[in-house]
Amino acid sequence: MTRRAAQPPSSRPGAPAGRRVRGALAVASLGAALGFASVGAAPGVAFAQSGSPFDGTRPDRVSFSASDKDARAGMDRAERTVDGVEIYHVQGNVYLLVGSGANVAVQIGGDGVLVVDTGSAAKRAAVLAAIRKLSTGPIRWIVNTSADADHTGGNETVSQAGMTVNGNPAAIIAHENVLTRMTDANRPITELPLNTFFEAGRDFHFNGEAVFLYHVAAAHSDGDVFVYFRGSDVLVAGDLFTTTQYPVIGKGGGVDGFVAGLNQMLDIAVPKYLQEGGTYVIPGHGRVCDEADLLDYRDMVVIVRDRIRNLAAQGMTLQQVLAAKPALDYDPRYGNDRGAWTSAMFVEAIYRDAGKATSGKQRLPAR
Amino acid sequence: MVRALLVGSLLLALAAGPARAQIDITGEWAGKYHEDFDDRVPGDVQGDFTGVPLNDSARRFAEAWDVTRVNMLEHQCQPYNVAHIFRGPMQFRIWTEKDPATQSVISYREYLGTYQQFRTIWMDARPHPPDYVPHTNMGFSTGEWHGDILTVSTTHIKKEFYRRSGIPSSDMTTLVEHYIRHGNLLSHVMIITDPVYLTEPWVTSEEFVLMERGNQNWLYNCEYVMEVPMNKNTVAYYLPGANPFIQDYAKKFGLPFEAVFGGAPTLYPEYRSKLEQLMNRR
After folding, report:
1. Residues in chain B closer than 8 A to A332 (CB atoms)
2. More confident call, A70 vs B54
3. Residue B56 and residue A328: Cβ atoms within 8 Å?
4. Average per-residue pLDDT in chain B?
5. Continuous segment of H or E residues that includes residue B186
6. Distance between CA A223 and CA A225 in Å, rounded?
7. Does residue B3 lie in a domain region?
8. Each residue's pLDDT tens digit, A166-181
9. What global pTM score does this model have?
10. Chain B residues with CB-CB distance to A290 below 8 A
11. Domain-located, residue B262
12. Among A90-94, A314-318, B142-146, B212-216, whose mean pLDDT is lowest?
C-alpha cells in the first residue's frame, strides 16, 4: 500500500458543492442532536472531540452515560437506529455501529470516513445507511481486523460507495494474511483487501488524528489487526477482544497471541479516573469497554490457559481436562454449550496448543 | 390591578405540579458500624466467604484468588463498585438536582467519600441505557418512591468483588437499594443479583447517621506505580488446590471450612443444626 495524504472532500474532483453542503448540514444536525459541538461550517467537517460519557464536571463524569447525553439532546434510540443497526458515539471522532454482525467502528471528520470492519453481508445495506446517517463525506478507507465473514461481509458495498482521492472505490486495508484467507475462501475480488501490509504495524493521519494499525501474530487468526485512534483515544480490537465469549482461536491463531495482543492493548489504554473511562475499547462483539474490562479479560485468558497447560503437563487427556472444568469460574460469563464456538472448543484449542508448547521440552506456564 | 396579579399568581401556583411530600434524604451521612463491623471496617480475613450465596464458579474464582493481583499496575486504583462500596468504611452526601421551572426532583446525586465516587440516581423515569454502552463503577441508576422508601435500581456496573477475599462480582450484576429514613438514621438495604456468581439475590443492610456538621472529605488520589520489581504482565493466581490461605478464616474461628464455603444454604436458620453436626464431628 502506498501511503497517501487524504484530501479534504472540498477538493474531491467531481463532488457537487450542493451535495457537500447538504451533507455537512445533515452531519451538523445529527451532531447537534447528539449533543456535540460542530467544528465549523466547512463542508464535510463533523464533530469536535467531546461527548465522552465522562466529560464535564466531576459529578457528571461518573454518572452520565452517553445514552443520557443522547436522551438529554432529545435523540432517542429509534432515531439512532437504521434497519436494526444502532449508532453510538464512543468518543471523539469515533462511532460504533451495533447490530451489524461484528461491531463496526466509523471515524468521521473533515477528511472523510474511515470504517473498521463492515459487518455481515446480511447487514451491509444497513451499515452503509448508518454510515451515511453519520456523514455524507467520502468513505476513504476500510480496515479489516480479520478475514471473518461477519467482519468483512459489507466490504464490497461500503467500498463501492466510497472513493479514494484518485477516484477508486474506498481502499480496503488488512494484513496480508487476511487477503490470503479471503482469496482461499473464493471471495469476490471487490470484497478483498488489496491494500495489504506484512509488517508489525502501519500508521497514517486522517481526520485530524494519527491512526495506528497493529498486527498481532497468531491470536484469533494469523492476520489480526487492532486499530488505535490516537486523538479520539479509542481502540478497535476486532476479535482479539470480545465481551460475549471466550477467545475464538481460529486457523493460524493461538492463545499466546491473544495474551500478547491483549497486553499490547493494555499498554496503550490509559484510564481517566480510577480504572474508568479514558481510552475506550470497541470489542469485536459486545459492549464498549475500557482498560479495566480489557484487564479482566486478559487475566481470564492467562489463568485459564495456565490451568489447562498445567493439567496437560500432568499427562491428562483432553477428556480429563474437560472434566476438570478449567474455566468453571468464567463459564457463566463467557461460556457456550452450543453455537459456533463452545467452551469445550476453547479448552481443546488451548490443550492442543499446550501439546505444541510442551513437545520437545517441558514448558510449564510461568506464574 | 393588584387583585388581578394575585389571582394570576394563584392560578400559576395551582398550575404548577403538586409538591411531593416525600421524606428528605439529603444531607451528609456517616456509617454506623454496629452491624458487620469486622467485615466493613478492618476488612475481612483471607478466606472469609461467609454470608454470601456464592455458586461453584465463584468458589473456583476464590480458590484461584491471590491478593497480590491488586499489586499489578492496572489493578491498583480499582475502586469498589456500587454493590460493594457501601460495605466498607463509608460516608456520603446526598443532594438533589431540581427542574428550575417545576422544582420537581430530576435526580438525587451522591458523593461517596470512599474512592471519591460520584453517582446520579435519575428520578425522571428515563430508561436505562442499552446493553452496548460502557459500564462504570457506580453504574446507571434510576429511582422511585414507594411511600417514604426510595427504591433505586442500578445496572451497567463494572466487574469487581463482593469481598476482598476474592468473591467476585460480574459485570452482569444488578442492584436494588432501599433508602429508609428514621429520624437521623438512614437504613440502606441492598439486594444484589448476579447470574454469574450468586445462586440467589444477596441481601445486606447498613445504617448511616445524619451529620449535622458535615463529613470529613476523604480524598483518594491514587497513582499506580510499580511497587515491587516484577513482570508487569504477570497475573497473580493460584492453581486449583494450591491456595495456602483459602482456609485461614475457618481456622481462625474454628469453623468447618464446608460451612464457610457453603454459600446460600448457610445463610438460613435451618443450617444451625447442620453446623452443629459438623462441629460435633470434629
Report:
1. 55, 57, 170, 195-197
2. B54
3. yes
4. 91
5. strand B185-193
6. 7
7. no
8. 999 999 999 999 999 9
9. 0.86
10. 134
11. no
12. B212-216
Record: contact B109-A63, CB cut-off 8 A: yes
Contacts A306 to B, Cβ<8 Å = 237, 239
For chain B, the domain total comes to 1
B161 vs A: CB within 8 A: no
Range of the domain at B49: 27-210
Structural domains of chain A sorted by starting position, each given as residue range(s) with its CATH number in brackets: 9-289 (3.60.15.10), 305-358 (no CATH)
Give the minimum alpha-carbon distance from A215 to chain B in angstroms, rounded to a whole number: 19
Cell numbers at A65, concatenated: 452515560
User: Are A133 and A27 in contact, with CB atoms under 8 Å apart?
Assistant: no
Q: Which residues of chain A have pLDDT under 50?
A: 1-74, 359-367
Among the partner-chain residues B120, B130, B134, the one whose CB lies closest to the CB of A63 is B120
Residue B34 lies in a domain: yes
Q: Which residue, chain included where needed, has cell 456500587?
A: B82
Q: What would the grid cell of residue A26 be?
A: 445533515
Residue with cell 499498554: A267
User: d(Cα A316, Cα A322) in Å, to the nearest integer?
Assistant: 10
Whether B158 is in a domain gets the answer yes
Q: How far is CA A107 from the centre of its chain?
A: 11
Q: Which chain B positions have a beta carbon within 8 Å of A266's beta carbon?
A: 74, 233
A72 touches chain B (CB under 8 A): no
Cβ-based neighbours of A244, under 8 Å, separated by 6 or more: A283, A285, A286, A334
What the block records as the C-alpha cell of A209 is 488524528
Instruction: Establish if B219 touches chain A: CB-CB under 8 angstroms.
Output: no
Nearest to A331 among B57, B79, B136 (CB): B57
